[in-house]
Every structure is written in C-alpha cells, then in structure tokens.
Design brief:
With 325 residues, the chain is of the alpha/beta class. It has two domains: 34-138 and 280-294, 3-Layer(aba) Sandwich (Rossmann fold); 141-278 and 311-322, Response regulator (Rossmann fold, 3-Layer(aba) Sandwich). It contains eleven helices and twelve strands. It has helices spanning 2-32, 46-58, 76-88, 105-113, 141-156, 173-188, 204-216, 229-242, 261-268, 283-294, 317-322, and strands at residues 34-40, 65-71, 93-96, 118-121, 135-138, 161-167, 192-199, 223-226, 253-258, 274-277, 302-304, 309-311. Strands 2-1-3-4-5-11 form a six-stranded parallel beta sheet, sandwiched between helices. α4 (105-113) links the parallel β3 and β4. The structure holds beta-D-fucofuranose. The site of beta-D-fucofuranose has 14 residues, from α2 and β9.
Length: 325
C-alpha cells in the first residue's frame, strides 16, 4: 500500500513542477509589463467611449502593459484621488485626460516627486512649470473651431444670423477653444448674433434640457453651434418636440463637433450640416510615446492630430463605413 502511495505521488511530481514553472513564467512576464495608471474624464459622450476603447486596446497585456483604469465621472476631485492612488501603487507611467485646464500643480508635482512620468492626452493643463508633464497628444481644438466658423462664413457671409451656442464642460480645452473660435468670428461678423451660450457639459441629456428650456422661453435661432455630437443629438430631440426643422431642408442649420458614427449618419441624411472631426483614437499614440520614453528618447512636448470636416454634400456611405469610430 505504502509503495502504491509513493508511486502515485511520484507520478504527480512532474505535474506540480509543470504548474510551478508556469507560474514562475507568468510572474516573469508580469514583471516586464509596463504599469500604467490612466485617469479618464468619464463616459459622457460617444467620443469618450471610443477614446476609452482605443486606450484600453492599445495599453493591453499583449502589447506589454498592465493598465489601471479609472473613470473620474466628470469630477476633477476623482482624478486627484485616482492619481494619488497610482502614485501610491508606484506605477511606471501616469496618463491623464484632464477634465479642465486648471488646478493641476499640486498633484502633478506629487507625481514628479515620486519620479513617475506623466503623459497628457486629449485636453490640456494650464501650468507654468512645463516640467510637470512629459508630453501631450490631442486635437487642435481652436483649429477645429475655425474650420467650423469658416464654413459658417461661406454659407452666411455677413447676412444676419442668430446663433445658439451649446458649450461643453467648463474649463475643458475642447470647450474653451471651440468657444473662442466662435467668439472671435462673431467679433469680425457684426451681423452674427450669439443668442445664448448654454452649458451642456458634453452630454446628450444636458444638450436636450438647455435647448428645450431656451425654446420654451421663446428663444429663436438660425444656426446651432454645438461643441459635441451628443449635445447636438439632445438639441435635435428638443427641436423635434418643438416642431422646429433643421438640416439641409430645415430652418435651422447645425454645426457639430466630433464626427462620431451617429452624427455622420445624420449628416448623410442631411440633418446635420457640418460635422467637424475630433479624432479619439489616441491609444496607439500614447503607446508610442511610452515606448519612446522607455527607449530613452526625448518626447515631443505637444503632438496635434490631423482632422477634417464633413458637410452633407461631401459625406458618403463608404466614408462612414470605413471609419473606426
Ligand atoms: O469633443 C467630447 C468629449 O475633450 C475632445 O470631450 C474631448 C471632448 C469631445 O466629451 O465629446
């Protein structure tokens, strides 16, 4: 009997060894993974969801990363908490999509003191000390805005124009710069009247609410300048309910930012007149920056991505189908 037990245990030995080796191997690979803490703005828009998907797929284990993802739910205090948590966990890199531009000095200084490189993505931070972060990649939001106002100028020139302006999150670069482009254009076009700049926080629900209230108070406009597609969808619903027509055949023209799939579909139907692209696919760009940093290369301070705009006359089905977001 004893002999049988010994033989049985001997037979199990190679199995245990195999399992143990595997574990050791796993640990070895784990060690080589680059640990990244990513503090994301929230999940306020289709653009944001596409951005999160791009970041998660680029910073994957197959690609050499262990990603700690935090959704700040549009609250900057949550970003501070997440970043301090990343610092405590001694991650290799901190990536931040900052909600607004201000209020970053202390927490970025803490990351720098801990020797953790910070890479910014999407929106920017307004800090004097440039050594608080290594690199930023994102869109030129002012250029996006001037692309929109140049189109408005081509359509209306100096004819009287009442504009309803839906603004994104207060203090966010995307909102500040798209707003600035509109205000600058309105200054050089005295016949353009910004009827109201309403805060929609980049969400569909808010876009709906503020447009509905504006209309129910008797507000009138000829053009909607909406700083993202989701607020546009909300405004379209409010206009539908109020019986206001829009798009190519309608009384109101719509200019919208982001170019998410549903917006391009509306553009193809002639319901949105101009879609200004904002590219959310930053994952591979952040991956490239981290890999360059790992290789000891100097990182560019700012990298702007290329973007275009689509009007209802230039958009096609093939184009929509060929796009990744
Ligand atoms: O336009 C909007 C999102 O910062 C570019 O944030 C981003 C903006 C984008 O919520 O849809």
């Amino acid at each position: 009997m004893r002999r049988k037990i010994i033989i049985f245990l001997l037979c199990l030995l190679p199995l245990c060894c195999f399992a143990g080796c595997n574990r050791a191997k796993e640990e070895e690979t784990d060690e080589k993974l680059i640990v990244v803490g990513f503090s994301q703005v929230g999940s306020e828009s289709d653009w944001r969801l596409a951005n999160t998907a791009s970041m998660v797929s680029a910073l994957s284990e197959e690609n050499g990363y262990h990603l700690l993802f935090d959704n700040a739910k549009q609250r900057q205090e949550n970003q501070y908490l997440a970043i301090r948590n990343f610092i405590q966990q001694d991650v290799d890199y901190i990536v931040i999509a900052p909600i607004s531009e201000t209020g970053w000095e202390s927490v970025l200084a803490e990351a720098r003191a801990a020797g953790i490189p910070v890479i910014l993505v999407d929106r920017q931070v307004n800090v004097e000390d440039q050594s608080l972060y290594r690199s930023w990649v994102g869109s030129d939001f002012y250029r996006e805005g001037t692309e929109a106002t140049a189109w408005i100028d081509r359509q209306f020139a100096d004819r009287p124009l009442r504009i309803l302006h839906l603004q994104g999150t207060e203090g966010a670069t995307a909102s500040l710069m798209r707003s600035k482009a509109l205000y600058d254009a309105a200054e050089t076009h005295p016949s353009w009247q910004i009827e109201a700049s309403l805060k929609g926080d980049f969400t569909e629900a808010k876009g709906y609410e503020v447009t509905r209230d504006f209309l129910s108070e008797g507000g009138k406009f000829d053009l909607l300048y909406s700083e993202n597609d989701n607020m546009t969808f909300g405004a379209m619903q409010a206009m539908d309910e109020a019986g206001i027509t829009y798009g190519e055949e309608g009384t109101v023209k719509i200019v919208s930012f982001d170019c998410v799939k549903n917006a391009l579909e509306e553009c193809l139907k002639g319901k949105i007149d101009l879609c200004v692209e904002c590219n959310p696919l930053h994952g591979p760009r952040v991956d490239a920056l981290i890999k360059a940093c790992e290789a000891g290369e100097e990182l560019p301070r700012l990298s702007y991505v290329e973007e275009i705009a689509f009007s209802s006359d230039t958009i096609t089905r093939e184009l929509i189908d060929s796009r990744g977001y």
